[in-house]
Design goal:
Length: 82
Amino acid sequence: MKTLIALAAAAVVATAASPADARQGCGPGFHRTPYGRCVPNRGQQMRQMRYVEGRYYPGQGYWWHNQWRHHRQRRNGVWIYL
């Protein structure tokens, strides 16, 4: 019984001791999936990378409804993104 508990504890420690981070060869902020593809880590860093709607980003344009718009006009007191 003691051996079974020791093996279970070792499995839990081994699982918790291997977080997905840059040491898997994908670079900082990325990890590998079970199929070997590099994907970004979810968490606080991903929330900071999101674009704000209606804001102008130099060299890219305005981000509006998940699309890049390059022009905007004001019509009837509302910004229209073209």
